[in-house]
Amino acid sequence: MQTTTRVAVIGGGVVGCSVLYHLTKLGWSDVILLERSELTSGSTWHAAGGFHTLNGDTNMAALQGYTIKLYKELEEITGMSCGLHHVGGVTLADNKDRFDMLVAERAKHRYMGLETEIVGPEEISKIAPVTNIDGVIGALYDPLDGHLDPSGTTHAYAKAARMGGATIETHCKVLQTTQRTDGTWDISTNKGSIHAEHIVNAAGLWAREVGAMAGIYFPLLPMEHQYIVTEEVPEIAAIIDNGGEHPHVMDPAGESYLRQEGRGLCIGFYEQPCRPWSVSGTPWDFGHELLPDDFDKIEDSIAFAYKRFPALERAGVKSVIHGPFTFAPDGNPLVGPVPGMRNYWSACAVMAGFSQGGGVGLTLAQWMVEGEPDRDVFAMDCARFGKWITPGYTVPKVIENYQRRFSVSYPNEELPAARGVRRTPMYDTFTSMGAVWGAQFGLEVPNYFTKAGEPNFEAPSFRRSNAWEATKREVKAVRHGVGINEVHNFSKFLVTGANARTWLDRVMAGRLPKPGRLSLTPMLSHKGKLIGDFTVSCISEGKFQLTASYGSQEYHRRWFEQNMEDGVQLENISDRRNGFQIAGPKAAEVLQACTATTIREIKFLDVVEMVVGSTDCLVQQVSYTGDHGFEIYCDPMAQHALWSTLWTAGAPHAMAPFGMRAMMSLRLDKFFGSWMSEFSPDYTAAETGLDRFISFKKNTNFIGRSIAEAERAVPPARQLVVFEVDALDADVVAYEPVFIDGEVQGFCTSGGYSHHAEKSIAFALVPRSCVNDDLAVEIEILGQRRPAKLLLEPLL
Ligand SMILES: Cc1cc2nc3c(=O)[nH]c(=O)nc-3n(C[C@H](O)[C@H](O)[C@H](O)COP(=O)(O)OP(=O)(O)OC[C@H]3O[C@@H](n4cnc5c(N)ncnc54)[C@H](O)[C@@H]3O)c2cc1C
């Protein structure tokens, strides 16, 4: 076996082979794949081979679309067959909410260029005749759905990779991975040792064990999964004899997926009484064996399937496939550079290898070869989970995700599993005040506060929810008096050292503040994409506090560490600085009552260290609500004391707590965009208007400068704008298509209801050439095209 390589991919399932192929495709040929047995020796050989584009996350759906289109390319390159059957598929809806969800998906597909279609019961009967349409109200038809031969496809990836110069070493088990001080890796195997610049963990069922060799915990868990293949089904045989093929049918109500297999059918289930497999680790001697058949576990699912697909009941069972495959807590893959590690990459927890494997391979290869992926892949970035994650979180979340695989996902939904793993000292106080909690990055965050007698649960809905009245109340309290909330769900970094300013000047595109001031700045990638939207506070020369999105803290930390310089110390203090925000016309009076510092002397964007009550605090005059307001940071040990001080001082002004629902309504009035909606690596600063915070005057070659300069000279084709929507009972969430002159020419990034202005608001990216003061458009919300007009001025 060779002894050196640029990249060692560990694992020869569909994902490892796809990564290997894409590395060669992008020009890295000194790459090797190490497989402990034959290729496809993990989950891959069990797979039913189905593929589809449907995914709640738009970027994941796009990568699934890429994967499906790739198979033809693979066949052409290699001359091998992937056993492709592009038969199309329907996803059924038997209730209004699910139908709403499919209609909303279809709307997203419009601007993505996917030719899906909503079809009614009669059409379903024609397209998928084995379906009993009793109770079915419609379906989403996707012509791209289909299935393939899992083994043939994996070998086609492998052959294409070999043709690009890659080596594949089978029967080569990785036993240990040891990092050298220069960041490269010694990998010992049963066939000898190999020195690699990079490691990719694509070890599927054994990804946890391979990760542990480098001291990494990968939050994933295998689940048992079962599908049944029938003997010949006369209805299917008749279709085949007439030269046809039966399409796929996803039946979320029955938690099943069904397709033609030979002259019979194949049906698999995501059953409620599901079972994790090998919770404490995958045995090394697990190989090509199946798990014992377990009809008890899927008894209810089978009974439902007999009603939906009566032909099944008459068919004999030919074989049962019962095997394990891995899931991350939210069901999306874990991809990218592992935070805190050098040269260690993840391509794990891919639960739908044949829908997602191509996109995962492309993304990882772009990241390794070009330094960053082409699009926003946060939904599958391994940095979306933090160091706080343990099996105590992973196991219940994976079970929940499996059980909800076919559930309706609502935009306002908060899921119950593994809650309360991270709380601040305010949790009990806010609970006693009626907080209805949500979760962000494992942290409990109040969404809104109920009054006595109101239900303390927000009903999941695509339409305006029962949080409406409480949200309105909180918005009014802020706008007309003063509101208070916690600043726990901002990330906070402390940057110190002699070179702190120089380094920040290179990493951030905006102007850096003087001591005692703060500034807002975008952070750009080398390709000029928006990778951060930061508040930078200069506490004193050589000492800065950065605040940004709490959920992106590992993503940002990884970037900072990748771009670190000597003379700079970076600390993630997100959970070591906490405190409150008070906002509204009475905020200054409340703060003044708690401190000897003269508050009226504090100007907008000032940063002041002061004692508030008995607590040392860092106070900033800024508020995301758009009001006159203050962010007050303190040591969490002192947070309760600070709370008592502020709450007591707020009482004469009827100060009210407010939650995230109100915050997201308030920001609309000022046209403030939000991270991962308006501002994400899918967009540039010039597209979203954040270029107004870029300092082109500063004499620094900040990261992304050349692209930002180019966009300054020639503005990008699309532009972020804000619309007032003539909405009914549902507001824009994200990705709704925007029709201009009857054509889909843009899409929404986010939206909501402004309780202050009493208007439904949508942010959207539209062609710059279409923007004029009188621009009137239509936005499709839950299947209805609603008129909308451009707003020229903020509403506050
Ligand atoms: C019953 C069932 C039905 C399914 N149906 C579908 C479907 O219809 N569509 C779909 O898209 N997906 C389906 N899946 C899921 C699909 O199988 C997985 O998404 C996919 O196989 C994951 O591939 P992988 O390469 O990540 O992992 P794996 O296939 O598990 O591959 C990992 C590889 O790494 C190797 N390895 C591990 N440790 C080492 C080591 N130390 N040294 C060297 N090599 C190592 C293993 O031998 C193995 O070959 C199904 C799964 C099951 C169980």
What does this entry look like structurally?
The protein has 796 residues and is an alpha+beta fold. Strands 1, 2, 8, 9, 10, 11, 17 and 18 form an eight-stranded mixed beta sheet that branches. An eight-stranded mixed beta sheet has the order 5-6-4-13-14-15-12-16. It has a six-stranded mixed beta sheet with strand order 28-29-30-27-21-31. A hairpin with a 4-residue loop joins strand 13 and strand 14. Helix 2 (58-78) crosses helix 5 and helix 2 (58-78) crosses helix 10. The longest helix has 21 residues, at 58-78. The chain starts with a strand and ends in a 6-residue tail after the last strand. Flavin-adenine dinucleotide (FAD) is lined by residues 10-16, 34-37, 41-44, 46-51, 173-174, 202-206, 210, 225, 227, 321, 323-325, 350-355. Flavin-adenine dinucleotide binds next to helix 1, strand 3, strand 12, strand 16 and helix 10.
